[in-house]
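I am still getting used to backbone structure tokens and would like to learn alongside you. To get us started, please write out a protein record for me. Start from the sequence, derive the backbone structure tokens from it, and show both lines together. Once you have written the record down, we can walk along the chain together:
***
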Amino acid sequence: MAAFTCDIFIHAFFSLLALFVVRFVIVMMRIHNPNKKGPMNIRRANCKLMVVMGSGGHTYEMVQLIARLNEKYTPIVYIIAETDVNSEKKVHELETFKMIVKQGEGSYLIEKIPRSRELHQSWLSSVATTLYAIIYSIPLVLKHQPDLIICNGPGTCIPICAVAFLNSVVAIKKITIVYVESICRVKTLSLSGRILYYFADHFLVQWPQLFEKYPRSKYFGRLVS
């Protein structure tokens, strides 16, 4: 009886594993389909947006990107690393600006996650902290269920995007991931960019050199100044 029960569990495990692999392949094929429709052509009245803030220059660039979005991208959930005080301040300043200039088009919320990798942290230990950040990010993505995620690095975006990708694989909800590579990346991608180049639905670069080197990317000129 015990052996029979064990066989059932083993069969169920490998069946689920096979299903996961099939779903993984299907999602990857959709992502890498060159004939798919553009990411920004979302027809619904409102698009629930999740924005992953980096730090320093990444935050500066992201603020410029978000400030240009129209009123349908609401509500906005900002994801910030726990130790990133500056980004939280910039988010509040941006939303205050939008409220004054654009007459309060939408609502926003700030959520914090552990930082995947601190400055000068060893690569070995960053594996553990990244896994912890991914686990921490699971309830956030499941709670908010965004339609669209926009990120531009650094490592803070990896846990959120990993959970969003798995969300699509297990067919809970399709979440579109848009990665915008930093303008300071002229000839090579950042580490986050090299990872998300394969998993982001839409990968935007700001220099023609990168566009020529990475065929999956999209180039619309400089998106930030």
Q: What stands out?
A: The two ends are 69 Å apart (CA to CA). The chain has seven helices and seven strands. The chain has a mean pLDDT of 85. The beta strands are 49-52, 76-81, 108-113, 148-151, 176-180, 202-205, 218-219.
